[in-house]
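The instructor's notes for this session suggest beginning with a concrete chain rather than abstract definitions. Hand out the sequence below and ask the class to guess, before any prediction is shown, which regions might be ordered.
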Amino acid sequence: MIELDGQLVSAQESLDILAEMEQRSRAAATRLPQLTQTRDIWDGLVFTVAGARVVAAMNEVSEMLPFQERITHVPGAKPWMLGLANVRSSLLPVIDLQAFLGLKAIVPSKSTRILVLRLRGLVVGLVVPSVQGMRHFSKSDKLPNARMKGVLGAYVYDAFNVGGEVWPVFNMHALAADPGFRSAAQ
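After discussion, reveal the predicted structure:
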């Protein structure tokens, strides 16, 4: 005997109750609307660099870390190569993105973050002044070939227009493919 809602029922009665519940659930499921697999949402990570707010595809940034003071300098490296950080027992090359772009180096603060990229065989941490969070965009709001002027122009090919507000897309694949970015030795 099994107690069910304060009443004793036999094992067979409890199995009959479960079978009836399963039958009702299956019948109700056939009346539910079917979900379509189309996804017209683009997910991005919003951050600042060179005084501009940009967004990178979430699938281009594998993780985000707080800025680490313990970065070991690498002799003979270009000034934008800050050095190596020990992240979970793995060495991560850390690059000041603004310094790489030829701008003033980032002064670390509480909002400074390291964006970890794992693209095109390259694993690197990019130091950015701040990250504002994740943002979802409708793919229908995408502005193709939305070029940006200035130092970011080499890495911004698209943007989103949401209610008249433009969100430039910083292409991390383009950055990883840049031969100058892949050559940190002086």
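Then share the key points. The CA atoms of residues 112 and 162 lie 26 Å apart. The first strand starts at residue 2 and ends at 4.
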